[in-house]
Amino acid sequence: MEQKIRRDLNIGSNLRRLRDNAGLSQEKLCALLQMRGCDIGRTTYAKYESGELNIKASVIVALKKIYNCTYDDFFQGLDQ
Questions:
Q1: What is the domain partition of the chain in residue ranges?
Q2: What is the pLDDT, as a whole number, of residue 77?
Q3: Three-state SS letters, the chain
Q4: Nearest-angstrom CA–CA distance, 75 and 77
Q5: Which are the contacts of 64, defined by CB distance < 8 A and separation ≥ 6?
Q6: What is the pTM of this model?
Q7: For the CA atoms of 65, 66, 70, 71, what is the dihedral angle to 10 degrees?
Q8: What is the pLDDT of residues 16-36, one digit of tens each?
Q9: Which of 17, 61, 62, 79 is 20–30 Å from 45 (CA)?
Protein backbone atom coordinates (compact mmCIF):
# COMPACT_ATOMS: atom_id res chain seq x y z
CA MET A 1 0.00 0.00 0.00
CA GLU A 2 1.36 3.39 -0.99
CA GLN A 3 1.74 5.83 1.86
CA LYS A 4 0.67 9.41 1.24
CA ILE A 5 2.76 12.12 2.80
CA ARG A 6 0.65 15.08 3.79
CA ARG A 7 2.31 18.44 4.05
CA ASP A 8 1.14 20.30 7.14
CA LEU A 9 1.79 23.83 8.31
CA ASN A 10 4.94 24.17 10.35
CA ILE A 11 6.14 26.78 12.76
CA GLY A 12 9.83 26.43 11.95
CA SER A 13 10.33 29.96 10.66
CA ASN A 14 8.64 31.36 13.76
CA LEU A 15 10.85 29.22 16.00
CA ARG A 16 13.93 30.58 14.28
CA ARG A 17 12.67 34.18 14.45
CA LEU A 18 12.01 33.89 18.19
CA ARG A 19 15.41 32.30 18.80
CA ASP A 20 17.20 34.93 16.73
CA ASN A 21 15.34 37.73 18.52
CA ALA A 22 16.47 36.26 21.84
CA GLY A 23 20.07 36.19 20.60
CA LEU A 24 20.46 32.48 21.28
CA SER A 25 22.29 29.79 19.33
CA GLN A 26 20.59 26.45 18.89
CA GLU A 27 23.11 24.94 21.31
CA LYS A 28 22.42 27.52 24.04
CA LEU A 29 18.67 27.18 23.57
CA CYS A 30 18.87 23.40 23.88
CA ALA A 31 20.84 23.80 27.11
CA LEU A 32 18.08 26.07 28.46
CA LEU A 33 15.43 23.57 27.38
CA GLN A 34 17.30 20.75 29.10
CA MET A 35 17.39 22.79 32.31
CA ARG A 36 13.59 22.92 32.04
CA GLY A 37 13.29 19.14 31.63
CA CYS A 38 13.06 18.96 27.82
CA ASP A 39 15.74 16.56 26.61
CA ILE A 40 16.22 18.11 23.17
CA GLY A 41 19.49 17.98 21.26
CA ARG A 42 20.62 20.55 18.71
CA THR A 43 20.02 18.19 15.77
CA THR A 44 16.42 17.61 16.83
CA TYR A 45 15.84 21.32 17.38
CA ALA A 46 17.30 22.09 13.95
CA LYS A 47 14.69 19.71 12.49
CA TYR A 48 11.94 21.66 14.27
CA GLU A 49 13.16 24.88 12.65
CA SER A 50 13.48 23.31 9.21
CA GLY A 51 10.02 21.73 9.41
CA GLU A 52 11.36 18.18 9.14
CA LEU A 53 9.98 17.28 12.57
CA ASN A 54 6.86 18.42 14.40
CA ILE A 55 7.53 20.04 17.74
CA LYS A 56 6.04 18.63 20.93
CA ALA A 57 3.60 20.73 22.94
CA SER A 58 5.79 20.40 26.04
CA VAL A 59 8.67 22.03 24.15
CA ILE A 60 6.43 24.91 23.06
CA VAL A 61 5.41 25.46 26.68
CA ALA A 62 9.07 25.58 27.75
CA LEU A 63 9.99 27.90 24.86
CA LYS A 64 7.14 30.26 25.79
CA LYS A 65 8.69 30.61 29.25
CA ILE A 66 12.21 31.08 27.89
CA TYR A 67 11.15 33.73 25.36
CA ASN A 68 8.51 35.32 27.60
CA CYS A 69 6.16 35.46 24.61
CA THR A 70 2.60 34.43 23.78
CA TYR A 71 1.50 31.24 22.08
CA ASP A 72 0.33 33.41 19.18
CA ASP A 73 3.99 34.25 18.49
CA PHE A 74 4.60 30.60 17.56
CA PHE A 75 1.74 30.57 15.03
CA GLN A 76 2.18 34.03 13.54
CA GLY A 77 1.37 34.15 9.83
CA LEU A 78 0.09 30.59 9.54
CA ASP A 79 -3.56 31.52 9.07
CA GLN A 80 -2.98 33.37 5.80
A1: 12-70
A2: 87
A3: CCCCCCCCCCCHHHHHHHHHHHCCCHHHHHHHHHHCCCCCCHHHHHHHHHCCCCCCHHHHHHHHHHHCCCHHHHCCCCCC
A4: 6
A5: 70, 71, 74
A6: 0.85
A7: -80
A8: 999 999 999 999 999 999 999
A9: 79
